[in-house]
Amino acid sequence: xxxxxxxxxxxxxxxxxxxxxxxxxxxxxxxxxxxxxxxxxxxxxxxxxxxxxxxxxxxxxxxxxxxxxxxxxxxxxxxxxxxxxxxxxxxxxxxxxxxxxxxxxxxxxxxxxxxxxxxxxxxxxxxxxxxxxxxxxxxxxxxxxxxxxxxxxxxxxxxxxxxxxxxxxxxxxxxxxxxxxxxxxxxxxxxxxxxxxxxxxxxxxxxxxxxxxxxxxxxxxxxxxxxxxxxxxxxxxxxxxxxxxxxxxxxxxxxxxxxxxxxxxxxxxxxxxxxxxxxxxxxxxxxxxxxxxxxxxxxxxxxxxxxxxxxxxxxxxxxxxxxxxxxxxxxxxxxxxxxxxxxxxxxxxxxxxxxxxxxxxxxxxxxxxxxxxxxxxxxxxxxxxxxxxxxxxxxxxxxxxxxxxxxxxxxxxxxxxxxxxxxxxxxxxxxxxxxxxxxxxxxxxxxxxxxxxxxxxxxxxx
Length: 462
What we know:
Elements: H1 4-30, H2 40-50, E1 87-104, E2 111-112, E3 115-116, E4 126-127, E5 131-141, E6 144-153, E7 161-169, H3 177-182, E8 186-194, E9 226-236, E10 239-246, E11 263-275, E12 278-289, E13 334-346, E14 349-361, E15 369-382, E16 388-400, E17 408-423, E18 426-438, E19 450-461
């Protein structure tokens, strides 16, 4: 008689006996490593993991516009990119901001034709005008390339216009031993270009390209301009020396020669990676021009401020008042400026400083005025690949206000920001900013002024 206990025992022995054969069959199905056979989805994931999310670098001596370009200052002298013939590359960068700022002032009314020009325009949450850049880069010969930047959309010029273009020479175009030896240390940059005064312009937002800037806004007093001329660099063992001369203005002009003169630019510095986790950089820069009809060292950022309409009156427009939130000292006829920039990188922590002094005057002034600016940034990058960061910046500017002899004013700004590199070419960042205006005359719209609030910005650059 077959009982339930007999059936159970028989089934158990059958299962034990069949286990080795089943295991051998399963091992054959999985392969020698014991893994399950790859499915179509697994194959696609493997291929995706093997494909780089970075763009191949084909242009020599080139600062990439993605996450690899962070903490890069001058374009590298030797980057290991081989020359494989003429190459033409296109790139782009564009941004969009959401702004939620508020502002206030205590200026006395200034009524003209029934309109109070000291009454602030009403602002609220909303999206700003998108900004976009188009880049054209060409490798012409070994160590010789050309770069062209076009602003497709900017705050001051909604239409497309050329920002700058230059030729960079890092190798001798002539096969001569002496010239080749010299060019191992020397770089030439010639064209209508962003001048290399100070280090702050390497960490700022340039219209559509906001990927290098850990914050949304730039500095209160913006030393940024494009001029026609040339720069000569000498680099060796971490040391950097640069001397340059330009036409002194943002445009090429041949009229009024007695009122115009060249600008001279110089930089001396040291940049060294002491260990894998420690990098030190210190530079000092000078910019000077003795006479100019319209020097724009502090007014050349035609892309404009990220803080739309702040501290502007009800007659303001986005393009005409494109520098809202900035301070332009108005040194348009004569200017001599010095900037010192220390930079320390310890692991994921970056510390960047700015100390600047500028003296000069406008054409209708007989006495020079002086302005100073100080700023310090602290940024900490973390998570694998430094995909996230947090940071803070304190920035203060002070000087004698144009049109008010002896009237010293100051502006203080604090920025607290955070960012996420969704991919090396896509960045999302946010910032809380507060800015206060001190000691401005009661008749100035900025008297007792301040603005604060939240900014959110998305960036794509490649």
